[in-house]
C-alpha cells in the first residue's frame, strides 16, 4: 500500500479565528476519505492548503509529506510532487457565466497537461465517453446559464479525470443536484476510481453523499476533528452528538409532517381543466384538475425543466395557461388585471433555496419589515413587534437589526425568508428547494421551522423539489413531473408504498438504497 500524502499537526488560522487546529491525516493511494461538516468547519481550509491556494492572510503551520518526497513545511506556495486535480461544485460557480462551457473546460485541461487545445478537447471527449450517463461533448457547447446543473457537473467531473490525477480534491462537487443525478455522478466517480486507482479527498456537508462514497469519514467542527472511522460504521452508529445531528437531520431521516387537524380548511387553490405552459411554448399536462385547501401541502416533484415550476408560476398568475381556470382565494385569476393580480399575490409567500432571493444591500430588519410596510399601514411600534417576534421564532433575534444581508450565511438567509413569510400570514406559501446546499444540522432546523410555520400560520404549502425525501418531510400529496408531463399523482404514502411509474420508482429507490449497486466500499487499488 502506497502512502500518498501524510498531514501532521496542520494549523490554519486568521487574525480573528482558527480555521483548522492540529489536524493530522494519512491518505493512501486508491483510498477515499470524506470530510464531513458544515460551512466553516475547516474542510475548506484543508482543501486550500493541499491545493496550494491558501488565501492571503492565513497563517499555516505543520508538515506535509507526499509520496517519494521528504516532509515539508505546510505553506501557500510549495510545489505538490504528486498529480492533483481539483473538482469544484456547481454551487461555487467555477465557470464564467457567459463563456462557452466546453471552451472553458478545454482550456483547464490544456493548461494542466501542457497540451494543445485540440488534444485537450479530444481527451475530454474520451473521458466523457467512459462515464456512464454522461452527456455528449456537444452538449457542453453553451454558456452555463443555458445548461442544466447536472450537465455542468458531468463536464467538471470529466475535466478533473482528464488530468489523470493521483489525488482528486473534490470540493462539494455534487451539492445542490437532484438525488438521481447525484447518485449517477457518484457511481461514475467510484467506477473510475476502481479502474484507475486514484485517491479521493471529498469535502461535503451531505451525509447521503458521504454514505454513497464509502471509505473513511472524518467529521470536522470548528476546525477540529470530532469523530472519524469507516463510513460503514458511522452511518449507523455515531458516538459524538454533532455527528448524530448531521446524520439525523437529513430529510431522508425525517418522518412525515405532523397530521393535520381533522377539520378541512377552506379552498385556497382550485384548478379546473388546466394546461401547463412550458418554456418552449408547448403545453405539458392537459386538463389538470385539483384543489389545495388551507393547511394542506402539495409537492411538485421533478427535475429542472420538468414543468413543475411552470405549473407553480401559472397557479399564482405569473404565467398564463393555454386553457383552464385557476381560482386563488375564491377569485378567478384569469379575469384579473395585472394590478389586481399583484394585490392578490400579496397573500402568497415565497421561500426558496436561492441565496440571491434577498436584496444583499438591505438590512436584516428592513428585509423583515418590508412586506408589512408594503401591505399594511401599521404604526412603527407594531411593525417592530411583529418583526421581532418573527426573528425570534427563526433564531435570528440575536443578530443586529442593521446587519446587511450580504454578511449573512446561506443558512441565516434561508431562515430570514421564513421570518418574512411569518409576518405576512399568507394563504399560500411556495416553498422551492428550501434545503438545497445546507448541511444536516441546518436542514433539520429548516424542516422544523417550515413545519412550525405551517402549523401556526396555517397556509397551504406548495413544495417544489427534486428530492422525494424533502417532499415526504413537508407534504401529504404529490405530483411527479417528468419531461413536461405529470406521470403520477397521489398521497406520498401511496406513492412510496406502490409506485406505478418507473420514474417514481427510481426516485424512491434513490431515497431508500444505501449505496450504488454493484460497487464495493473497499478502496480501489491501482
Structural features, described:
There is one protein chain. The chain has 526 residues and is an alpha/beta fold. Among the domains are: 90-164, no CATH class; 267-512, P-loop containing nucleotide triphosphate hydrolases (Rossmann fold), CATH 3.40.50.300. It contains 17 helices and 20 strands. The chain has helices at 43-51, 101-113, 117-130, 149-162, 179-196, 207-213, 231-234, 241-248, 308-315, 338-344, 364-375, 380-393, 410-424, 440-457, 468-474, 492-497, 502-512; strands at residues 3-14, 17-28, 32-36, 59-66, 72-73, 84-88, 167-171, 199-204, 216-221, 224-230, 267-274, 288-293, 297-301, 325-328, 331-332, 348-352, 428-432, 460-465, 477-482, 485-491. A 6-stranded mixed sheet has the order 6-7-8-3-9-10, with helices on both faces. A 6-stranded mixed sheet has the order 16-17-18-13-19-20, with helices on both faces. The longest helix has 18 residues, at 179-196. The model is unreliable at 513-526 (pLDDT under 50).
